[in-house]
Amino acid sequence: MRLPTADVLTLTRRYLDLIAGRDLSPSEKEAFIAETVESYEAHVNRGFLTYRKSVTQAGQFAALEWSGQGSILRDLLGREYIDALGGYGIFSAGVNHPKILKAVQAQMARMALNSQELLEPWRAALAKLLAAVTPGDLGCCFFINNGTDAIEGAIKLARLHTRRNLFISTLGGFHGKSLGSLSLMGKASFRTPFEGGLQDVRFVPYGDAGALEDQLAVLDAVGQLPAAVVVEPVQGEAGGVVPPDDYLPRVRAACTRYGALLIADEIQTGMGRTGRLWGVDHAGVVPDIMCLGKSLGGGVMPLSAFVSTPAIWEVLIPNPIIHSTTFGGNPIACVAGIAAIEVTLEEDLPRQAAEKGDRILTALGALRRKYPQVLTDAHGRGLLIGMEFPSDEIGFQCAAGLFKRGVLVAGTYSKARTIRIEPALGIPVPLVDEMLNRLDDTFREIAATL
Ligand code: PLP
Predict the structure, then answer these.
(1) Per-residue pLDDT tens over the stretch 2-56
(2) Does the pLDDT of residue 331 top 90, yes or no?
(3) 431 and 355 in contact (C-beta within 8 Å)?
(4) In angstroms, rounded to a whole number, what is the distance separating the alpha carbons of residues 46 and 318?
(5) What is the whole-number distance in angstroms between the Cα of residue 296 and the centre of ligand 1?
(6) Taking Cα atoms as reference points, which of 220, 237, 73, 86 lies closest to residue 147?
(7) Arithmetic mean of pLDDT over the chain
(8) Quick check: CB of 146 below 6 Å from ligand 1?
(9) Domain-by-domain residue ranges, the chain?
């Protein structure tokens, strides 16, 4: 309902006062929490309040995220949470990394966004840096603001370059939810409400190189070869699903054999998450297009990119605005990306992810032996780890039990009985161990009810 201007300004002034950092009394905090819940119900999506079952089951669904540092998040009431979720992969460098914040604040004070008419120096600098850290001769970059749009751009680039329209994706794959990227989604419940407008895609089981080779042979026989095969080096939203060692090399070889591009979706696996800088580094594979996102912005700015080779990029040169966007490659996002690359390399976040990932997987192996009726499997690479439970209900109980004990973990989109552990790569070891203690405690509580 439209309000008089004076009432709107009363609201904006109160919000800006809070944003500026005015302290709230306990009763003001309670009132603000209630107001936020009401606004979610009326103006955001009331379904979201109950959808996060882990939080609602713990009876704290109105926890308001207020501040954070490193691997600790705080709500408005001052309760602390160990962040073992990493904002679904954005906080690889931790929350509010001081170096990344400082760079962004400095650029913000100079020029937050750009005219788009003059050359943007930090876009060029970040592209040069990515060329220096990505495999093979990848090194031509287009920047946007989220993973979905990086995939959209990669789809368009592959179609332009190959003049083919078909794509191959994998079961359980997650690549975004716009119509183009949704077409690659390997899960029915998100696809079926939108069928009709989607890009033509064939699906093959993830991790099964033979199935892909067979599919390509069939498509070749009927003259329907794909523009590209899109694959995550480790499936993220599906819960840290690691393919066999020969999978990516065979996918690479099959793509080359049939003239299809290999698009590596590194939106979740990139920037050290799996224990190497890029997920494809484990297999020594060079894709034709790499999509980056999430932690590329250092957990401070939204930033994503698709990166390809000079030969493939040629198709974008005659009309450089055939694919363009207003905010893509803006200065504050690119500055965040530059600082994120420095932090990732300087703090050797990939090595940290590998070591802490091993520590967690070893501990989960022990917990699995201790509570076989609760934890049925644990898998992953680096700090992209999935825990499997015998049922959705036990998965929810685990997430809720952890939330109650001040630990945030990530659900997966594919099945509620899989839960991800995806903390900042620099999470201190004592916090990892504390998280594991609380996990043990949660499993003990659940086991007692079975
Ligand atoms: N690709 C992968 C592998 C992802 O994990 C995600 C998000 O979870 C996306 C694409 C979509 O990214 P965004 O949500 O930033 O649009």
Answers:
(1) 999 999 999 999 999 999 999 999 999 999 999 999 999 999 999 888 776 555 5
(2) yes
(3) no
(4) 47
(5) 12
(6) 237
(7) 95
(8) yes
(9) 98-346, 349-449
pLDDT tens-digit map of 112-141: 999 999 999 999 999 999 999 999 999 999
Q: Which atom of ligand 1 is nearest to the CA of 269?
A: 3
What whole-number distance in Å separates Cα of residue 103 and Cα of residue 89?
Answer: 21
User: CATH number for the 349-449 domain, one of 3.40.50.11440, 3.10.20.90, 3.90.1150.10, 3.40.50.720?
Assistant: 3.90.1150.10
Pocket of ligand 1 contains residue 267 by CB under 6 Å: yes
- Amino acid, res. 429: V
User: What is the whole-number distance in angstroms between the Cα of residue 65 and the centre of ligand 1?
Assistant: 22
Instruction: Determine if ligand 1 sits within 6 Å of the CB of residue 236.
Output: yes
Other beta carbons within 10 angstroms of residue 89's beta carbon come to 25
Any ligand 1 atom below 6 A from CB of 298? no
Residue nearest ligand 1's atom 10 by CA: 175
pLDDT at 53: 57
Average pLDDT estimate for 377-395:
96
Quote the ligand 1 centre to 177 CA distance (angstroms): 8
Q: Which atom of ligand 1 is nearest to the CA of 88?
A: 8
| Torsion sign across C-alpha atoms 231, 189, 85, 129 | positive
Model confidence pLDDT, tens digit, residues 418-428: 999 999 999 99
CATH number of 98-346: 3.40.640.10
Q: Where are the alpha helices (DSSP H) in 134-208?
A: 147-162, 179-182, 188-191
**Does the Cβ of 388 fall within 6 Å of ligand 1?**
no
Ligand 1 atom with minimal separation from the 235 CA:
3
Residue from 373, 367, 85, 355 nearest 240 by CA: 85
Instruction: State the distance from the centre of ligand 1 to the C-alpha of 174, rounded, in angstroms.
Output: 7
